[in-house]
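I hope you will forgive my troubling you with a question about protein structure. The full record is reproduced below for your convenience:

——
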Amino acid sequence: MLGRTDSRARLLVLLVAFVVAATAIIGRLGWWQVVRRDALADEARRQTSMRTEVPSDRGSIYDRSGTVVLATTVDRARLVAAPRQLSAERRRTVAAELVSILALDATAAADLTAKMTSDRPYVVLASGLEPDVSDRIREAAAAGRISQVSLEPEPTRVYPQSGGGPNSTLAAHLLGFVNKEGDGLYGVEQYYQDVLAGSPRVLFAQKDVNARPIPETAVVAEPGVAGSDLRLTIDASLQLAVEQELFAAWVADRAEKISAVVMDPYTGEVYAEASYPSYDANDYRAIAGTDPNRFIDPIVSEVYEPGSVFKMLTTVAALEQGTVTPKTRLRDTPKLVLDGGRTHIDNADHKGKGWITFEDGVAYSRNVIASKVALALGKTTHDAASILHEVWLRLGFGARTGIDVAGEVSGIVNDPAIRDWRQIDLANGSFGQGVAVTPIQLASAFAAMINGGQLVTPHVVKAVGDGDAKVAAARPVIDAKLSPTLMSMMNHVVTEVPFYRDRTLIPGYWVGGKTGTAQIWDAEKHAWKHNLYNYSFVGFVGREVNKPELIVAIRINQARPTIARIGQLEIPVMSFALFRRIAHAAITTPGLLSEQPAQPSTVTADR
């Protein structure tokens, strides 16, 4: 007879085990259902719903009148599909039909076909579809030629105004563009990204099997804020005229680049700002794939050695120190030997004019005269270098002007306190070699020379939404008493020298400025580029004597002279001739200038 297999001890152990297991299970359930309830619920929501950001309406950009649209956003369509819901044969049929409707080339057709014949649940086949294309897709879907294809709304940034040259839109460098993610790149679009874009609406919605939000389940979590419109200081008609002039000069001069900026010397408002080659902001993807450097704005983002326009900076330093007056006579020689005979500088024509006045030395752009004046600024070379360097800094070189576009650079000015200058460094600096500046810095500095000594902040936005844009206040950098003398010397440049006078003066207007022609250093070859030069002119124009109303800065980059003699490096459209064309277009633009000319300082010039 078998013995009994049950036992109270064994039953007790089993009972305890069951109790422990049940307690653990109940505790674990409590942990999940009570302690971890919110986390699990969030996880479940994440698996069945999705967070979507819907961009707010981006603000438009207008010219100074508020009527000419320079940039705006329009509704286009994005073509999407769910290939997984179709058979392999049907995917190929739909792909072929779409290629026909969209009229794609071989490369684009292959890309669309690859996406459409994949097993993916959701693909984007095309973006930015025009309304007529969208209509053809809807007709094909209604006729059953395509299926599992839909159109989604897609805001697209457009630039409706044509530029002054082929394949360009108006003010492309200044405006920049907006990429497909809605981010502004370059220019105003990037600088004012947050203002223009506003903040997006945030939605939570359940998602379908293709991981797309179900509209009926959408809940607004954040309402978003619409972007603000911008009204620029730019005059659209002047901007177009400037671009047309630049394109014509670029063709004639066969220059690498050519740029111009027109600015109010008293307020810093930029009326026009352009460079060529430019680009079509509506087709920025094509440029990005072939020549992305085209997006860089030479006015604010590229530096160069400006040449003799910098003689006006040397003039400011000398007049402040009292070492010369415009009528001081100085001896001009073909060459100036420096640094104990180890270095020297030459006049461009390798000749000397003998004893001439300082103002004639500036007018005829004598390097030897500028160098002698610079060397005499202080008792030692170091003292003179420090004085000239301080004037450069005070007039804004070596620092950003603060213009409200993306990508501004500060330029390069060597500090004699860090590396002591030799006499040759000081001499070269006196006529604009050995420094690197931007055209907007030159415009700002020359504005200070003629407006009573105030360094203004250049700016391109006049209003944000319904309110005026904030602009940094001008600051005094030159004694106001110097402005009439400086204006007189710049007027002397274009009236004294026949070569300038014949192609710079505008009948009935008061004009002044300074030219510059500079060699170009090849950093790779460690030598000057052969027979290539930068040509510059910065000048003013006004309707009355001693009352300049506009400042215009011109840069012609890497042009090869068609007439190349000692002291004469001439291109078909010289910088000062281009200045005259643009200045005349600006001052005769209807409604641009006030009825009354500007009122600068009435202090008489120290002659």
Summary: Residues 8-35 form the longest helix (28 residues). Residues 347 and 368 are 6 Å apart (CA to CA).
